[in-house]
Amino acid sequence: MNLLLLLAIPLLTALLVLAARNASQVRWISLLGAAVQLASTLGLYLAFRHERAVGNAAQFLFEQQYNMFSSLKIGFHLGVDGISVAMILLTAFVVVAGVLVSWNVEKMTKEFYFLLILLSLGAYGFFISLDLFILFFFLEIAVIPKYLLIGIWGSGKKEYSANKLALMLMGGSALVLVGLLGVYFSASVKSFDLVILSKGIVSPEVQNICFPLLFAGFGVFTALFPFHTWVPDGHSSAPTAGSMFLAGISMKLGGYGCLRVATYLLPQGAQHYANVVIALSVIAIVYGAFATMMQKDLKYINAYSSVSHCGFVLLGIGMLTKTSMTGAVMQMVSHGLMTALFFAVIGMIYDRTHTRQVSEMGGLLKTMPFIGSVLFIVGLCSLGLPGLSGFVAEMTVFMGSWENPDRFSRIATILSCLSIVVTAVYILRAVGKVAMGPIRADFAALPDASWNEKLAAIVLVVGILAIGTAPFWLNDLVNPATEIIKQKLMMPVPLD
Amino acid sequence: MLNATYIALIPLLPLAGFVMLGLFGRKYFRNTSGVIATVLLLASTLLALYTAYGYFFEYGKAGGVYQKLVPLKYTWLEFSKGVSIDMGIILDPISAMMLVVVTFVSLMVHIYSLAYMKGEERFPTYYAFLGLFTFSMLGLVLSSNIFQIYIFWELVGVSSFLLIGYYYDKPSAVAACKKAFIVTRFADVGFLIGILVLSYYSNTLDFNTLIANLTSPESNAYKSAAAASFLGVSALTWGLVLVFIGGAGKSAMFPLHIWLPDAMEGPTPVSALIHAATMVVAGVFLVARLFPVFAISSPNALNLVAYVGAASALFAAVIACTQTDIKRVLAYSTMSQIGYMMFALGVAHWGAGEKMLGYTASMFHLFTHAMFKALLFLGAGAVIHFVHSNEMKDMGGLRKFMPITHISFLVACLAIAGVPPFAGFFSKEEILLAAYHSNTTVYWIALITSGLTAFYMFRLYFSIFWNKEHHPHGEAHHGEGGFAMMMPLVLLAVGAAGAGFIPFGHYVTADGTRLESEFHLQFSILPVALGLAGIVLAMWLYKKQNERPDKIATSLSGLYKAAYRKFYIDEIYLFITQKIIFNLVGRPAAWFDKNVVDGLVNLTGNTTQLVSEKIKGIQSGKVQQYAIYFLVSIVGLALLFIYIWK
Prior knowledge:
The structure holds 2 protein chains of 2 kinds.
Chain A: H1 4-19, H2 23-53, E1 61-69, E2 74-80, H3 82-101, H4 109-128, H5 132-153, H6 158-186, H7 194-199, H8 204-221, H9 230-237, H10 240-265, H11 267-272, H12 274-293, H13 298-319, H14 322-353, H15 364-367, H16 369-382, H17 389-402, H18 407-435, H19 451-469, H20 472-490
Antiparallel strand pairs in A: 1-2
Chain B: H1 4-28, H2 33-59, E1 61-62, E2 65-66, E3 69-80, E4 83-91, H3 93-116, H4 123-142, H5 146-164, H6 171-202, H7 207-215, H8 220-227, E5 229-230, E6 233-234, H9 235-250, H10 259-262, H11 268-277, H12 282-289, H13 291-297, H14 299-320, H15 326-346, H16 357-387, H17 403-417, H18 423-438, H19 440-465, H20 482-498, H21 521-542, H22 548-555, H23 557-564, H24 569-615, H25 623-645
Antiparallel strand pairs in B: 1-2, 3-4, 5-6
């Protein structure tokens, strides 16, 4: 499997979109491109499994390397392990669904789809890069389209939200860049190559300086408290597909970076700051959940609940056990699918009722059985119902966290467990009001989902069920990769 | 023959029904969905009977002791070596018994609903949800892994939620289903943390290994769990108590019972299945499943089970005496009877013969209760169907119009009141005997409760079928509800009348050995006399319309009102959730986020803008200005150099 294919398909799609003659061509080209990409990521997964099954135990598979700036030791180095494959699969699912729900975007359709595809290109590139410079490059590619998507196709106070989001994410990127440079200049081997750097030695002092920079920098992307406030505003102003990409893909770039770059390259730093990470993630989980409970707008509810759910990702990483890190990756995939679906459903409801205020809705299950049922499914997934993906991921994080026997970790785990009650409260309040209860007279004739909306929802529900009912495949995929990170964490402290 | 495929099919057939009717029911099976689901469940029931028969009479025993067989185990999610969630099947006396109970009652409810729910707009959805519930409940009883049981535990919770909220356009139903889910969710967190604690020390999630590790005092698991302590209580006890909290939530034990009466918003057959016969006994089942650990390793935790059970039994019985909605009376009665099962487990000990009687008695009562309580609910459903009301005041004199319902309801009342030779008599007798030998306080509470039970059940009976004369206005034409509704009543009545003669101790005991049940005539006199006294009192008060009940209610004003208002527990909960959680935690969190955290973000942005606004004048592009800056800076630097650096 050639990883360049994963970049070539979106690139080609983007170019064809630019060349398309009308909106209908744009849509179909995008859908085709996304579908081909989904097929090739499934192919990647199968090829990856095959390689592992025949005993290829290399840390990264399908590696490719090209020189770019040999004087600065920057190379175009690609490769994937289980974590990357999981994230790539997630991205492909979300992109297909995002393309489908945007079917009715009439304003500047070509530009809209071009930006969506560009964003996905950035994400794919980010997940397959093994060179930190290239990784950073793709991270930036994934930021800019968001600014435009919100600024142009957004709603509400979109200028404010677009600015806030772009600036905060840029700030995060700046921290990442400083951290990367710090690692680059202080490592015993000068290189941006992740594989080489992970073998080189970074002194504990430098690790203690660079870890917070890298972790906080990537953390901004994944709603690390207190850098999470771009999330509610950004989501609420973004167009539906924008929200889906933002929560489903962009926020995962951060989690992936925290794990792959910050934790893996700087294990001593990670251990040194573990309790800070745990404390911040528990705050995000609990406080995010309580803040969600008070929200009245559906998009704000999902945005704040994303803060809470992404807290589980950070908690899993901060706990530094193999199981908890596997749980963190599972939670990223699960949350990506679930929250994309949630935003998709909110978009469908908004298109029909023209409101997102929970208090103004009621009984939608009656006129829109499909949309209502999907809202139920995604709500139940969010509150961690077994059989759906959220349960599997959260339980893995809990089990992994409980492996740390110190009192601090115990209290953190118990508090996080308690948050699932609050989750149930806000989900049931929202879903109960929107889907159940007596129906408003003027909503009585609203149409149910159209074919593209149904297809989008089905694609994501299939993903959620695939993890929720048969989690072993994802576990087997991710576990060897987190095992390597865990081994790195247990290596003795390097001497100066 | 023991064949795992057949056993796996028992839960999978209802699941297939759920998937099929859930996806395509509305479109393709509008009218046939009930029949499809019923046929699937009939197959399931037959397989369950076949399995139970095989287990009890063919292959279950080894050396005269019933074994815990695990014919199927499949790793579902592996956390670390040895610690994994397995999807498996455990076959032991209690799971084999529960298979029969769940499939049989569910089948009765499926058949009954064919008539009862006929014409409902969401008929296929109803049967889909029933299938989901039956699948989850069967998965729960078959679980061989503590995390597997948690998974199905949550799934029965959600099916209960969906069915309580079946009439989703009724605000009261929506409120009730949310309440049920959230209250049990709260308890489930206890269960979850309990699992974390127990699995941490025993280093497994598998029931058989976990029980073995935590009951042998030589094992490292046991030693570390007993040694670690928090607030002076050992980790092992904490783990068990937390698991019990989960069980108490599902089984509606005080003070986590508040969701059960409201759950009566669901369709009545659902109440019969979920909120009387099966799901609500899951907590009892869970404690029974972990009974060796409770009894051997943590008698303190078991004592807690006994007292919570006894308190719930009495508390609910008092409230039941005052309620006027017949389904709510039955709901409190369910809570009270589950209290019986719970404390029966609590008073049992590990050891030979008599000491473990409580365990057998509890399971026996679970079995008989499933029969007569399902019967009571289905009977109540027929009555509600007939008079279109849940309130006692709208009923009376119905014996002439509903003879089959009347007789079967009477059988169930006699059974629950403990009148020999009906089923409840035998199981309750065993429970009282077990309590008598072990814990006198619990015994006396149980005795008082049994008198109260007889009273409120016959208050219900006389108010529905006797009391004032009924004047039918137009509803008589649809009669009692036809064959589909009457057949389950008759079958369950046979069970309620005869199930007591099963020698339960021969089959279901804590350690799988045979327990001979002894019958002590002198011991039975007191409870039976109390029961009869309760019946007579109810007859005196409610058989004919009279002033006496109101007078008594007035004379007991304070107590009566408190009991009628369910001792204000709901209000206390409402106060805590609304006033404390929402106003003191939720609102400040949202405010803090909007104003402080986001305020800081905006402050950073505004400060940056402000500063650039102020200093942008420096970059004016005028050479003269730059010359001045240059001059001033040179002078400044020169001064610095001269006076400070020297």
